[in-house]
Design goal:
With 278 residues, the protein is α+β, with helices and mostly antiparallel strands. Helix content is 25%, strand content 38%.
Length: 278
């Protein structure tokens, strides 16, 4: 089987109210495009497309009662049944119960089956399985996805219909953002997480200066995007508090832009996002 090609596709931000979140991200200086309703009807989304072909996905349940359902006691144990038709939500249940914010990210992969095979015995992967949504204009979009069990790994996506149907053309954003520069993943198992990424990407990481004092960090380069693995050392209260609150997975996001600033996390619905001058 051929070696899969991999590239960052998009980052998922869970929000409770899609309309309100779309308005708030618009106020932060992003052009937000309605995405549509996913197959199964549990979720809908809106997209923020960038010039580097990546995008942010604002993902929300289609009705408010589903937000409450996400936070039911014991839901983590029942999630395999409750969210059988929405594995992306199942993966994010632990962090979603802690509130809005960064919950997942996707790598575009072709062929998808090859990436699943590459992970092999190191990680159980659910898929490939079909996915899709109906756009507001009625156009059907289809893809296939695979979900590793480890929350530190991205889910993998391969388009069935043309990607241009799934991802709208890049927008010029008033905030100056042009793409995703870096994605940071927080973990309590540094060596294991680094080994998983070495297996998936087929390359060694670069050493990097940890952006947070008293933490371990390495960096994988994926095209123009940096994937940073972070783990607390000693009494690092920032990362330890994050891991206790939201679990392993996405920590923060740095967007390539024509200016430098930190976005208001309240307006960004819990997502830690920084604009960095490129």
């Amino acid at each position: 089987m051929p070696q899969p090609s991999l590239g960052l596709d998009h980052v998922v931000i869970f929000v409770e109210d899609l309309q309100r979140a779309s308005e708030d991200y618009g106020a932060l200086g992003f052009e937000v495009v309605p995405g549509g309703v996913h197959a199964g009807g549990l979720t809908h989304n809106a997209l923020i497309p960038f010039a580097d072909s990546t995008y942010l996905e604002l993902l929300a349940p289609t009705t408010r009662w589903k937000v409450a359902a996400l936070r039911l006691p014991g839901l983590r144990r029942l999630s395999r049944v409750v969210f059988r038709s929405s594995p992306s939500l199942r993966r994010a249940v632990r962090r979603v119960r802690s509130g809005e914010g960064l919950v997942d990210f996707a790598m575009a992969c072709s062929p998808l089956a090859a990436a699943v095979e590459v992970l092999g015995d190191s990680q159980h992967v659910e898929g490939p399985m079909p996915g899709g949504r109906v756009r507001p204009d009625g156009e059907q979009v289809a893809w296939q996805v695979a979900f590793p069990d480890a929350p530190v790994l991205p889910f993998l996506i391969e388009d069935i219909t043309p990607r241009a149907l799934r991802v709208p053309p890049a927008k010029t954003h008033p905030c100056g953002a042009t793409g995703i520069h870096a994605v940071s993943i927080a973990t309590g198992s540094f060596d294991r997480t680094v080994a998983l990424y070495k297996t998936l990407l087929g390359r060694e990481p670069f050493e990097t200066v940890a952006p947070i004092p008293r933490s371990l960090a390495v960096e994988f380069r994926l095209g123009a995007t940096q994937l940073r693995v972070l783990a607390p050392m000693g009494a690092n209260q920032v990362l330890r508090a994050h891991l206790a609150r939201r679990g392993e997975g996405l920590y923060n996001l740095i967007l390539r832009a024509d200016r430098s600033s930190n976005l208001d996390p309240a307006r960004a619905h819990g997502a830690q996002i920084t604009l960095a001058r490129s």
